[in-house]
Amino acid sequence: MHSIVKTFIAIALAGVCTTQINAEEFQQGRVISGADEFSVLSHKARIAPENAMLNERMEALLPALMAETELDMWLVINREYAEDPVYYTLVPQPTFAARRTTMLVFYRTENGSVERLSVNRYPLGEPYESVWSGGNLDDQWQALADLIAEKDPARIGINVSRDWPVADGLTHGLQQRLREVLPAEFQQRLVSAEQLVVRWVETRSAKEIEVYPQVVGLARGVIAEAFSNKVITPGVTTTEDVAWFIRDRFAELQLPIWFMPYVTLQRAGNGCTDEQAFCGQSGQTIQRGDVIHTDVGICYLKLCTDTQEMAYVLPFGEDQVPAELQNALAHGNQWQDHLAAAFKTGRTGNEVLEAVIAKSSEASLMSSTYTHPLGFYGHAPGPTIGMWDNQGPTPVRGDWPIYANTAYALEGNVKVPLGMWDGQNVQIMLEQSALFDGEQVTYLAGRQTQWHVIR
After folding, report:
1. Structural domain includes residue 158
2. Shared domain check, 181 and 222
3. What is the pTM of this model?
4. 189 and 416 in contact (C-beta within 8 Å)?
5. What confidence category does residue 324 fall into, taking pLDDT thresholds of 50, 70 and 90?
6. Could you tell me the residue range of the domain that residue 146 belongs to?
7. Is the confidence at residue 14, as pLDDT, over 60?
8. For the domain that residue 311 is a member of, what is the CATH number?
């Protein structure tokens, strides 16, 4: 393109939509060089802290949530090969299955404490008291019915839900069997436990908050390793090569992923319109001048992460990221700040989204927000704050309110036109794990405010 035309484009871009931002203004930026900055426990060594976190949740959290949701009893009944989604959040480690049929009973006493009872052929041990073991399946179901009659709860929560998959773990067959063994008066007391399940899964305990930064730091550390010359040789390495390095590195660290990592790139001439949901391309060989993006998620100590970061491959002869790209990343950080500031206790996910869109509009940011809770699952239950294909209200899940001590993947993107790309947009896709404590949002292991650089 003729130099005069490029000059006119640069002037237009500077005046219309690329307000310069000082990146130093953004708080909680943190550079992590690699996963070796963090220790990883062996599988054996993970058992004690995971069970300590479970015991804390049982003692401090469950009684409060059962009172909040006004349930007198909560039943979690499941079978091997068809475990309830919430089952592994409730049982001590190491547990790999609901052997045969496993029945967990939580009963709220008059003093507010919760009895934790098991009706199982194979007793679970702490933190459960076994009230029946051994015998045949018919005896087991009758023992459960007798226990319910003895406790005489007014409202019995079972895991059935139309809208929340995590709260819909009681299978049709088990629900039929439960109703068969219960007297009619107790059948009438069965109610959905969906509110309790969502609150149980979304709420983070004190011990979990203490270890969560380590989990997120490991995820960010592997991204830093991947986005380096130790992994990427410009002109040779493909986006798939980098994605498989990430997967193999997590396997080496004995950290399970909850989805296949993916890596995409953007470059001048590939196009990125305002209307495109996502502009990155996969299946490409990485070249100098490319912008690279990755999305990864791991789970460790029962806690899951979801992280997206950006890298730039320096052209030959250059030694720093161009100012335009630094400014584009700063626009992404500005969008993050708008999102974090919108978190208020009691505000719904849809209301948070509305506030973010309003702020982005005021700042002339071309942004898209699709943020979700984190915790025992990467896509955890709780308030949905936008979706990539719906920047309006989300029924039911978007109507869920924000509570204190909940974690989120602050996920979304901004598009910024670049003079160096002849006016083509670059899409800055960011996602960082953060905690809302009821007052403010804090990134669990910092956030990306500087580009990863491949030289």
Report:
1. yes
2. no
3. 0.93
4. no
5. very high
6. 70-192
7. no
8. 3.90.230.10
